[in-house]
Amino acid sequence: MDTPYIKSLSYNINGLNNPVKRKRFEFFLREQRPQVVFLQEMHKMRTKVNLPLLAHPHWRKEFSAYGTLSSREVSILLSPDFLFVEKDVLRDPKGRYVFIQGLWQGIPLTLASIYVPNKGQLNFIHNTFQKLFAFSQREILIGTDMNLTAEQKLDRQGSQLKEASGVRNILLPLLTKFGLIDVYRHINGTTQDYTFFSARHNTYSRIDYILMPQSQKQKYPRKLLI
């Protein structure tokens, strides 16, 4: 029977070398039971890049991109019950993104995990989205750490509310330009939630996103609900 939706999670995991942290994360995944997991910043040791990211055999289907710096690493983990047949993979040599092209239940689908740098976000996002759309087939699902908030009033809270003027209010226009929607905001409306705390600035912000094309929501209202 067809799955009515894709259950996906996206995390900047900020390192998985600690065995206790890995075990806790595996337990968390067993509780949440996602089909697709997008990860950023695994900090995997260079001597272990050929080993599975997680020990549990459930997550052996792994697609990763490792750059020269361990702080830049992205991965996509697929559950065995996610009926996806991969056809092509594009990895960033700098470890900032990995794209997988394939078929999900007969639907051409491209999965993308993207880690945006904390400087030069506008150019990076624009160029990476162009590469993704050129590589992709029909449908796209993105898990990403944007290092930016989409809507400051909803996605940022704390003593220092404003981002630097050079990056303020650039994400929503970019998403609109590429026809992408923020799935969390689409489902939850004006509900406020946060994925990152900055002790330096004493602010909470939501900088991690699941994105998909607006047209996808209209064509597959049940299948591609995250």
From TrEMBL:
Domain Endonuclease/exonuclease/phosphatase, first and last residues per copy: 9-213
CC terms in the record's Gene Ontology section: nucleus
Residues the entry annotates as binding Mg(2+): N12, E41, D145, N147
Keywords per UniProt: DNA damage, DNA repair, Hydrolase, Magnesium, Manganese, Metal-binding
InterPro entries (UniProt xref): AP_endonuc_1, Endo/exonu/phosph_ase_sf, Endo/exonuclease/phosphatase
Cofactor dependency: Mg(2+); Mn(2+)
GO MF term list: DNA-(apurinic or apyrimidinic site) endonuclease activity; double-stranded DNA 3'-5' DNA exonuclease activity; metal ion binding; phosphoric diester hydrolase activity
Positions bearing the site annotation: Transition state stabilizer: N147
Catalytic activity reported: Exonucleolytic cleavage in the 3'- to 5'-direction to yield nucleoside 5'-phosphates
GO biological process terms held by the UniProt record: base-excision repair
Cofactor: how and how many bound: Probably binds two magnesium or manganese ions per subunit.
Name recorded for this polypeptide: exodeoxyribonuclease III
Similarity comment: Belongs to the DNA repair enzymes AP/ExoA family.
